[in-house]
UniProtKB/TrEMBL annotation:
Gene Ontology molecular functions: zinc ion binding
UniProt signal peptide: 1-24
Gene field: LOC115041554
Full protein name: E3 ubiquitin-protein ligase RNF128-like
Transmembrane stretches, start-end: 180-202
Main localization category: membrane
Organism the protein comes from: Echeneis naucrates (Live sharksucker)
Length: 362
């Protein structure tokens, strides 16, 4: 997870940066509804999402009778240019783009009491609109519509038709709201999340697996060590034994000298230790504390366990040879698990070797 955290952070930073920079490009479309009576005295209602709110316009409703400037259709100049004012019923100024800034056109209409301003695009621009900026005329609803739509309205109004217009907020648009971007971002988010989860699951499974393998091998080694320990020679020390008479002999595990009557274990390397001291040590480490001799290898337990896994050979027939000085003597191994009491010849109180050791010294 250590590696995925910076990736997630980067993605978050990227997303927040994207949202922040796209806020500047965010724009609202405007729903434009017009209604009028045609030549046959029939009510005509038209409705389209064809306007774009100006960058500085409040995004809210506005309605009124569509009104054109008296002279210049572009509605520029400081003088009153509409034949309506504050006392007229609500009206909406319809002006053409060009000649002066958007702010000037919008301010001129606002000064005369317009409820909103609709700017239509220049000739030949079809239905295209721009996101107009009008920072000096910000507290009036101002939208832009395409030239085609604008000219249609101009013709109607010039024919003397009273066109009622209702402007309503449409929907927000921006690079991050684009379908493509939404698609891309959701896929990217999904991929990053899925990758993080997969990575986490993989790491956890891997860890669990190696832990169980380690536990299993530890368990197996302990079992093998137990087996090997049972095969080691055990002696009860006597008063006349060299180990009890000389101070140079001591158990390397507890650092104490041997006393008569104590039970010692003789490892395959001939090093001797208290039986109670060396057994827990061997269970954990399986090597002689003095010479690091591996008792599993020395007794051939490892190979045998592997073989017995498939072959079921019984360990009670194994005979090991323990080398002591120049004398070689064979120790028949017994299987403590065997129900035969003769085979249960116990090492914990093993007097069978005493004769041998005496003979060795003899
Ligand atoms: Zn000891
Ligand atoms: Zn040793």
């Amino acid at each position: 997870m250590g590696k995925t955290a910076p990736h997630c952070l980067l993605l978050l930073l990227y997303l927040s940066g994207l949202v922040r920079c796209s806020a500047a490009f965010l724009f609202w479309t405007a729903m434009v509804e017009i209604g009028y009576l045609n030549n046959n005295n029939e009510t005509v209602d038209k409705y389209c999402e064809c306007g774009v709110f100006g960058r500085n316009s409040p995004v809210e409703k506005a309605s009124g009778i569509v009104t054109l400037p008296l002279g210049d259709p572009k509605g520029c100049g400081p003088d009153p240019i509409y034949n309506r004012n504050f006392s007229s019923p609500p009206w909406i100024a319809l002006v053409k783009r060009g000649n002066c800034t958007f702010s000037e056109k919008i301010s001129a209409a606002k000064r005369q009491g317009a409820a909103g301003v609709v700017v239509y695009n220049v000739d030949g621009s079809g239905n295209s609109t721009t996101h107009m900026a009008h920072s000096d005329a910000s507290d009036i609803v101002a939208i832009m519509i395409g030239n085609t739509k604008g000219m249609e309205l101009v013709r109607l109004v010039k024919n003397g038709t009273d066109v009622q217009m209702l402007i309503e907020p449409g929907s927000p648009h921006g690079p991050w709201m684009d379908t493509y971007w939404l698609y891309f971002l959701s896929i990217a988010f999904f991929i990053v999340t899925a990758a993080s989860i997969a990575y986490f699951v993989f790491i956890s499974a891997n860890r669990l697996y190696s832990l169980s393998v380690h536990r299993r091998s530890e368990k197996r080694l302990k079992l093998e060590a137990k087996k090997a320990i049972k095969r080691l020679q055990v002696r009860t020390l006597k008063r006349e034994d060299e180990e009890t008479t000389s101070d140079s002999h001591m158990c390397a595990v507890c650092i104490e000298s041997y006393k008569p009557g104590e039970v010692v274990t003789v490892l395959t390397c001939d090093h001797i230790f208290h039986k109670t001291c060396i057994e827990p040590w061997l269970l954990e480490r399986r090597t002689c504390p003095m010479c690091k001799c591996d008792i599993l290898k020395a007794l051939g337990v490892e190979e045998e366990t592997k073989e017995s896994g498939s072959g079921n050979s019984s360990p009670d027939v194994t005979v090991i040879t323990v080398a002591g000085g120049e004398t070689l003597y064979e120790v028949p191994l017994t299987d403590p698990m065997s129900p035969d009491p003769q085979r249960q010849q116990h090492r914990y109180d093993n007097t069978a070797f005493e004769g041998d050791s005496q003979a060795m010294r003899g």
